[in-house]
Amino acid sequence: MFASATPFLTIGLLILSNVFMTFAWYGHLKFESKPSASPGMIPV
């Protein structure tokens, strides 16, 4: 069951990630003038 669902799950996650990163990138460009913490400065 899981072996046949894996490619669809992978493709679905890639599409969701692509959509999220597109909105994040254009949001970053739109609100670039506002000061905010750099993502590189936030510890994980």
Element-level helix/strand string: H
Class derived from helix and strand content:
mainly alpha
Integer-rounded radius of gyration = 16 Å
Number of helices: 1
| Number of strand segments | 0
Helix amount, in percent?
55-70%
Largest sheet: none
Low-confidence stretches: none
How much of the sequence lies in strands comes to under 5%
Q: Distance between the terminal alpha carbons, to the nearest Å? A: 34 Å
Shape: elongated
Averaged pLDDT, please? Answer: 79
In short, what is this structure?
By secondary structure, the protein is mostly helical. The protein has one helix spanning 2-30.
Q: How would you describe what is shown here?
A:
- The protein has one helix at residues 2-30.
- The model has no long low-confidence stretch (mean pLDDT 79).
- It is elongated and about 45 Å long.
- The protein is built from one helix and no strands.
- The protein has a domain at 2-31.
- Helices cover 66% and strands 0% of the residues.
- The protein is mainly α and 44 residues long.
List the helices and strands and how they pair.
Layout (H helix, E strand, L loop, with lengths): L1 H29 L14
Short descriptors:
66% helix, single chain, elongated, mainly alpha, 0% strand, 44 residues
